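Dear colleague,

Following up on Tuesday's group meeting, I ran the structure prediction for the two-component complex that the binding team flagged. I've pasted the input sequences exactly as they went in, so you can double-check that nothing got truncated or mislabelled along the way. The structure tokens for the whole assembly follow below. Feel free to forward this to whoever is handling the docking comparison.

Inputs:
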Amino acid sequence: MNNITALIVDDSSVMRKIVERSLRQAGIELKQVLEASNGAEALAAVKENSIDLILCDINMPVMDGLEFIKQLARVDKAKGVPVVMITTEGSEAHVVQALSSGAKGYIRKPFTPDQVKEHVIPVLAAKV
Amino acid sequence: MRSLYPTVAPEETHPEWIPLLELATREVFELMLSSRLTTPASNVAFMVEKPEITAMVGLAGRLCGVLSINCDHKSAALVISKMLGVNPENADPQLSDAMGEIANMVAGNFKNKVAGLGDDCMLSTPTVITGGDYSLHSLGDSVRLEVRLLFDSRPVTVTLQVHS
């Protein structure tokens, strides 16, 4: 898992830092970390960059995470880029909705670095 | 006309929610901060200092209310220090963000523990009040559930105000 460019989407800058740290603790070598505070910013980042992995919150202002993954499906450049949701929304309905919209993984907050590793490594391995 | 989401009225608020609220809080501190909250021996510790930081998250849907977390500035700085590995003295710029996120995770974790609530209860974006010289008034009937814990020997209060 080397030279990964990750896009971390969360309206909390503190949470974005925690997610980045968890990725590094999971042994993922990050070439670049891009940050977005909502789905609209994330879509713009996807169009302008070559991204390997997206970690995305659900509850965000402007554009939420579920709307983001729906719109992401229409972006050619994003084809095959795995999205893992990291959110406090832990209900079955949200999980089903996210996975059916194209998310490859779902991590509930609060989480440990091990949980990030457990969900993200297989997703990256499947992409390669 | 029946509501799409039949609400949980205050009189229906079960006492078993208090341990769930406590568990939800403890899990957030343990998983995100690697910190074990302790139970105070008495309420005396909570009378000593005024809460200086109040982080609030609204709940709407089957359960309507507000979850809030109160603590002093030193505790909030320590939260950030443990979350991000920074010096507590440099924590101020991220204090509101971190405390809002803690409240968000406690609220989300709590609702996921109450059977049947997860799908029909939405959370608001967190609001954080700094300063302790204020009064909070709820306009409407409500029931208040409160959990008092110690974080690094300093008081942290988690309150769930359930509206009708």
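The longest strand of chain A covers residues 30-36.

Cheers,
M.
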